[in-house]
Amino acid sequence: MDITIHTSFLPHDDPEASLAFYRDVLGFEVRSDFGTGTMRWITVGPVGQPGTSILLAPPAADPGITEEERGTITRMMAKGTYGWILLATRDLDGTFEKLQAGDAEVVQEPTRQPYGIRDCAFRDPAGNLVRIQEVG
Amino acid sequence: MCHPGWHRARIAAQHLSDLARLRRVRDRIDREYRRPLDVEALARGAGMPAGQLSREFRLAYGRSPYAYLTARRIEHATALLRRGGPDPAGVWAAVGCSSPGVFAARFTELVGMPPGAFRLRAAGPGAALAPRPAEHRTGPVRNREAPAAEPQLA
Q: Is the pLDDT at B90 greater than 50, yes or no?
């Protein structure tokens, strides 16, 4: 079998703000952008890695989700307990400085974790936790 | 005249922005727990009275900001002790606690044994048996919320 992990998903509540974060601050390229208003599906990914993408999607757009569940999801996003993603870089300190200079919300400065890795963490504009770890 | 739907939407939007403000307080605790930090300082940073912050934080996250801060400090202390870090007598300062007595009491409460005993067990042949905070009933769980009997998001 030849399977790759192709696209993961993060919710947004303000597509322009999320786009600005992933495109302008993280430096991702925009691969597609469908929909209008808050109902936009935006595919972004790291330059030079066309096989891996993040789809920034409106939360709870599935018609099978009830109003109550939709409310729960948007509240969890706001309080920062819904979406999260783990990225990696060879240059953690450089990446951290660039994101901090881009005015991203810092959750954790570069730290050596007791379980061996070194990482930092930010919030994206929708409240998703973006953890970035250092790889050799 | 205001449409009742607009009023509801405005209240919902205000609630989401209040939750985002609480999230920033929690992120600040995650970022600064090693520094002297108390609920008054957190409340000042969030621009709300300490009592209101404690109440709303507990509603959103299932525990008070002070309990969350303490849990992060004790969690960090267990990691330091497990690594054979600073002497148990000095760990309280390394994790931002202002008093060794309060630290020892909270540690024992959350981990189930005093810091010195924990370090001995973490270093000894029974290291695998040393309790991890996450396994303890009231222990801190990184990136996960304390289970609230009745999640009160609204």
A: yes
Encoded tokens for A130: 């973006």
| Pick from B57, B47, B62: nearest CA to B145 | B62
Exposed/middle/buried for residue A120 (C-beta within 10 Å: 0-12, 13-18, 19+): buried
Nearest to B83 among A106, A108, A114 (CB): A114
Q: Which two tokens stand for residue A17?
A: 């703000």
Q: Do B16 and A74 touch (CB under 8 A)?
A: yes
The DSSP result for B73-106, as a single string, is HHHHHHHHHHTT-S-HHHHHHHTT-S-HHHHHHH
Q: Which of B149, B133, B146 is nearest to B74 (CA)?
A: B133
Q: CB B153 to CB A108 under 8 A? A: no
Give the C-alpha separation, B38 to B65, whole Å: 9
Query: How far is residue B72's CA from residue A107's CA, in Å, rounded to a whole number?
Result: 14
Give the dihedral of Cα atoms B131, B139, B146, A96; nearest 10 deg.
Answer: -90
pTM, two decimal places = 0.82
Which ipTM score applies to this complex?
0.90
Mean pLDDT of all residues in chain B? 81
Pair A114, A124: CB distance under 8 Å:
no
Torsions phi, psi for A100 (to 5 deg): -65, -40
Q: Which residues of A touch B26 (CB under 8 A)?
A: 79-80
